[in-house]
Design goal:
- Helix content is 33%, strand content 18%.
- By secondary structure, the chain is an alpha/beta fold.
- The model has no long low-confidence stretch (mean pLDDT 96).
- The longest helix has 16 residues.
């Protein structure tokens, strides 16, 4: 096989940042993709329809000429979100989900929800209007090891939440564990998951053995090999309950390599090719289209994209760096060779 034709894929979890960063991130996000779910963790966060509309306009202003790529906007849930906010979002025509961040879980999440039990009225409204709840599924209390955050969240919160709201569409974003994969597969069709390229391609040894590699530091953090293998298994299984979500999140090289570092991997420079690498290694290239192109739209109730893309078998070297703002970003897989390339 020397080429693959796919229905144009979508990215169901991405970070574009704002202002000057959009000049890099928007064209990269549109590379090969038809749509993208845009995360709302700006400063200040995108907490209402007006902020989402303004952010969308800034994004569209940076869309490449001739591109039909569409940003699908998301509201950031806080302790102050109301049912009226959800109704307004559902009526906007351009907001497709609401994101739950536990306060302090990741970049710009300090305004996130502090107590899930106080969100029942919001979740009930989301269930009624058909708005998708996008869950950053981790606990953030200091007594829980960072590698156990996802598994504990499932037992402490997610099982009861799914039972309480059985019709609420819920995406367990960027799952990272065997427990996450098992939970998604054991629930009804109202629960799905997105999976990133970094969690399919790497485990925590890649980040820590032989010296810390800051450009592989992301949240949720990379886990053990057994969890990586569980994610590969579910992603390449053909299940309709999992789909592509890069969590592509750019940070300037200096910020990533600073004393405190920051979490996120930038992957839009080669996103679909990175996934193709995983599926080829697993002998499951025939399952890539469902994962990348049809499962996500089906879950969100949107049509499949009307065009196709083509990947050709070609060895090519990923760039060592990419211009970003007034500096550069080190992309996922920098300097390595991939075996598939998007025909642009």
């Amino acid at each position: 096989m020397d080429k693959i034709t796919l229905i144009q894929p979508d990215d169901w979890h991405l970070h574009l940042r704002d202002e000057q960063a959009l000049k890099t991130t928007v064209p990269a996000a549109a590379r090969g993709f038809g749509r993208g779910i845009v995360m709302p963790n700006l400063t200040p966060p995108v907490t209402n329809v007006n902020r989402a509309r303004d952010y969308r306009e800034r994004i569209l202003a940076q869309r490449p000429g001739g591109s039909d790529w569409q940003p699908l906007m998301v509201l950031y849930l806080t302790d102050n979100t109301t049912p009226d906010d959800i109704i307004a979002a559902a009526n906007s025509g351009f907001i497709y989900g609401c994101k739950y961040y536990p306060a302090g879980a990741t970049t710009n999440s300090d305004s996130g929800v502090t107590n899930l039990n106080n969100m029942d009225a919001v979740f009930e409204t989301m269930q009624e209007v058909g708005m998708v709840l996008q869950m950053h599924g981790e606990v953030t209390t200091s007594d829980i090891d960072i590698f156990d955050r996802e598994a504990v969240f499932i037992e402490r919160h997610l099982r009861s939440l799914v039972a309480k709201f059985p019709r609420l569409k819920m995406v367990m974003e960027h799952i990272t564990t065997e427990q996450g994969a098992d939970f998604v597969m054991s629930t009804g069709d109202n629960v799905a998951a997105s999976i990133t390229p970094q969690h399919l391609l790497h485990n925590r040894n890649d980040m820590l053995v032989g010296g810390i590699r800051p450009h592989l530091f992301c949240l949720p953090i990379l886990k053990r090999d057994i969890h990586q293998q569980a994610l590969i298994s579910i992603a390449t299984s053909g299940s309709h309950k999992v789909f592509l979500g890069t969590d592509s999140a750019p940070h300037a090289q200096g910020d990533k390599e600073s004393a405190c570092g920051c979490a996120g991997c930038f992957s839009h420079h080669a996103a679909i090719e990175l996934y193709a690498e995983v599926f080829e290694r697993a002998g499951s290239l025939d399952k890539l289209e469902a994962f990348a192109s049809t499962n996500g739209p089906d879950f969100y109730g949107l049509p499949h994209n009307p065009v196709t893309i083509e990947l050709k078998k070609q060895a090519w070297r990923l760039p060592d760096s990419i211009p970003f703002e007034d500096t550069q970003v080190i992309p996922l897989g920098a300097g390595t060779t991939l075996n598939w390339k998007l025909v642009e």
